[in-house]
Design a protein that fits this description.
With 299 residues, the protein is mainly alpha-helical. The protein is built from 15 helices and no strands. The two termini are 28 Å apart.
Length: 299
Amino acid sequence: MHPIIRQHPLRAWFRRGLGLLMLAGLLGLGGCSMVGLGYGQADRWMGWWLGRELSLVSEQREVLAPALTALLRWHRQHELPVLLEQLNRAQTLAAQDVTAAQVCAVWDAVNDSLDRSAQQAARLLAPALRGLGPDQLAHWQRQREKAMQKWQQEWQLGTPEARQAAREERALNRLRENYGRWEGAQARALPAQLAQGNWSVEQALADRRHNEALLLRGLQGLQTPGLDEAGAAALVQEMWRSFRWPARQSLAPQQQAWQRQQCARLAEWHASANATQRQHLQQRLRGWVQDLGGQVAGR
């Protein structure tokens, strides 16, 4: 009901608005009032972020802004109701024991919504991301390298024991955000539960570097002379598919196994939650539904 989805640069665009901002509420990544507020301003957030990362000039920002506004308007009409349905579904599931299959069903429904959003984003945003100069692409590379270094400082520095302790602390904080108190036997079981997965910081770093390289090639491809609007949209869609379903087919079974592990772990955590903790989770989900429901009717 709040799967921890691995992140990559293209998803970061959606995470700053649209589908993944809504999903952030579903996964427990923010307070309910901030979710609704952030969603309603997602086009501004995304415009600011892309403008900073690509060092866009005023003329380019003027082209990008209406495309982002149109994307948010489309998402509010077509995909936000779908995601709200999944929030309501999660709220119902939170009152009872859940299976890994039920958790994965919510996860898959959200991912399907992201795919549809990506297709629409490709159609609307690809024209606005053309005309980037070499200096802007170089600026993008520097910005992404800074983000990579920050990630490495957070996840890769220190001894393996220190990294594992930091990972356990993050998971414990997330559980407490969702369920309230998470102590005693529940907290003591956490290290063994996290150790059961096949996640490794080395593989995560390799995946991030692979995804960054894909994204850079996609942005470079958009600058190809003579590329028409249909070709640009197709290029962006293919870039998303490379992220969504790994181009390296050898990793597809590994990613599927990783998702199944996450679903099973979340079901296990929820099974250990008592009635008070489950009510806490339901209240958080209910708050997100109310906050984001107003966004559907707001425009």
